[in-house]
TrEMBL record:
Belongs to the U2 small nuclear ribonucleoprotein A family. Transmembrane segments: none annotated. GO terms for molecular function: U2 snRNA binding. Gene3D superfamilies: Ribonuclease Inhibitor. The keyword Cytoplasm does not apply. Pfam families: LRR_9 (PF14580). Its main location: nucleus. GO terms for cellular component: U2 snRNP. Keywords: Leucine-rich repeat, Nucleus, Repeat. InterPro entries: Leu-rich_rpt, LRR_dom_sf, RU2A. This is U2 small nuclear ribonucleoprotein A'. GO terms for biological process: mRNA splicing, via spliceosome.
């Protein structure tokens, strides 16, 4: 397996894709963990991480420009609860042939308010009863799910099954929401998940203000480990 280092990211091809988006190509490196993406300085509209060994979708820096994330043929079994914090403007997400199992494990996707294109084909979760209806209910911005257009009749049926909102959910919706699989990857959020939002923002500001790649890598590692830079480090940028 190959670590997603700053050098690997710097050497990766970057180009305008057919959608005229700036895309970073990180396919096929057998990368096990997402890290060091802060060195991209949020310069990409799309990142292709197809054909790697990623187990947990998380540990993402602030990437508000990112609109498309390709993660097909990995080993992803869990999604970070804070997923939308790093990629709030994501519109297209491809998770084909991963290991997601439970409908409630997909809950972080509901926080991606601009998500309109989602592919989960090839995951065990697609065999769950009410799979398509549940995703449509929790992700109302979706227009395409598994390459099929979301119909208004499907939205209506989903509301009838699960309720008009989380505050008015049906017993079936409550049952599904309370069932999570035991697939959390220890190497996923770790200490970062225990940091407060203010602490994470403090490091993110330092990353955006860093002047060298070495500084960015150092700060990215601190974020992943849940360590805060000293105040002098932040004030100097």
């Amino acid at each position: 397996m190959v670590r997603l280092t700053a050098d690997l990211i710097a050497a990766a091809p970057s180009f305008l894709n057919p959608l005229k988006d700036r895309e970073l190509d990180l396919r096929g490196h057998k990368i096990p963990v997402l890290e060091n993406l802060g060195v991209t300085r949020d310069q990409n509209d799309a990142i292709d991480l197809t054909d790697n060994e990623i187990r947990h979708l998380g540990n993402l820096p602030k990437l508000p420009r990112l609109k498309m994330l390709l993660l097909g043929r990995n080993r992803i079994a869990s999604l970070a609860d804070s997923l939308a914090t790093g990629i709030p403007n994501l519109e297209r997400l491809v998770l084909t042939q991963n290991l997601l199992q439970s409908l409630s494990d997909l809950e972080p996707l509901a926080q991606l308010k601009r998500l309109c294109f989602l592919v989960l084909q090839g995951n065990p979760v697609t065999q769950q009863q009410h799979y398509r209806s549940w995703i449509i209910w929790r992700c109302p911005s979706l227009r395409i799910l598994d390459y099929a257009k979301v119909k208004q009749s499907e939205r209506t049926a989903a509301r009838e099954l699960f309720g008009s909102s989380l505050e008015d959910m049906t017993p079936l919706a409550a049952q599904i929401a309370g069932t999570k699989s035991n697939t959390f990857d220890v190497g996923g959020e770790t200490a970062m998940g225990r940091m407060s939002e203010a602490e994470r923002q403090r490091i993110h500001r330092a990353i955006l203000s860093a002047t060298t790649m070495q500084e960015v890598v150092k700060l990215e590692n601190m974020l992943a480990e849940g360590r805060l830079p000293d105040r002098d480090t932040v004030m100097s940028h």
